[in-house]
Design brief:
By secondary structure, this protein is of the alpha+beta class. The chain has 6 helices and 13 strands. Keywords: Signal.
Length: 235
């Protein structure tokens, strides 16, 4: 896969003015190539590269076909010659729109998909594939589940090859989601009690009591939606 700055794509004439946890598990056998062993839909968020646009500061934008790579945690696009390229880190980038979906860019390398808007707060998510098990080989080149090494390290090699797997281990990945809050000034906040109290500081006491009484789980989308819907009603 070729990786170049998106500015190169813009110079071709496309420049104009203007992440809940899933139960899906994927196993990569020892020695297998990630790209060759997984389907396109396992590797990407969308079933195909979809038309969208980049939105930069100063009301500049550019159009292309985009998709989000779940293993590399990077936004990719197809250029005019059909090459698959990855967006470079650009502090002036604000938003990536893919079809009906919006991804807010948090520099230097995170794309947060908009889940919903609740008054002055936005709920965002980032979907990714997380390495949860690595099973070492036993005798006769067989994988041993009993000797698996438990880990929560995210498999992320931004702008690098995706075939760098441990050739002596099976690897098990799970699709997960992280969450973030964003205010009207474009600032990102953790999806936690601290984030809620910052965004709704005017009603800090009420919000804190609500989160405590309802035992809100901040890694669950439904809990976050319900809490933000409540906070939105506060005067």
């Amino acid at each position: 896969m070729k990786v170049v700055a998106f500015v190169g794509f813009l110079l071709m004439g496309v420049y104009s003015e203007v992440a809940a946890q899933s139960n899906q598990y994927i196993r990569i056998k020892a020695g297998e190539n990630l790209t060759g062993s997984l389907s396109f839909t396992d590797r990407y968020q969308y079933p195909q590269f979809t038309m969208g646009k980049l939105v930069y500061a100063a009301n500049k934008s550019a159009a292309a076909r985009f998709n989000y790579h779940l293993f590399l945690n990077e936004m990719q696009f197809i250029n005019a010659t059909g090459d698959t390229l990855a967006l470079e880190n650009d502090p002036t980038l604000q938003l990536v729109v893919i079809g009906p979906d919006s991804f807010y860019y948090e520099y230097p390398k995170t794309y947060w998909q908009l889940v919903g808007t609740y008054g002055s707060a936005q709920l965002l998510t980032k979907r990714t594939m997380v390495l949860i098990d690595r099973e070492k080989e036993g005798g006769y080149q067989q994988s041993m589940g009993a000797s698996s090494i438990r880990t929560t390290t995210t498999y992320s090699a931004s702008n690098g090859p995706i075939a760098r797997l441990d050739t002596h281990s099976d690897m098990v990945f799970s699709k997960k989601a992280a969450f973030r809050l964003r205010d009207t000034n474009g600032q990102f906040h953790p999806a936690s009690q601290v984030g809620f109290l910052h965004l709704f500081a005017k009603n800090k006491g009420i919000v804190k009591q609500y989160l405590k009484e309802h035992s809100i789980k901040f890694n669950q989308e439904n809990d976050l939606r319900t809490s933000l819907s409540f906070c939105k009603t506060l005067p």
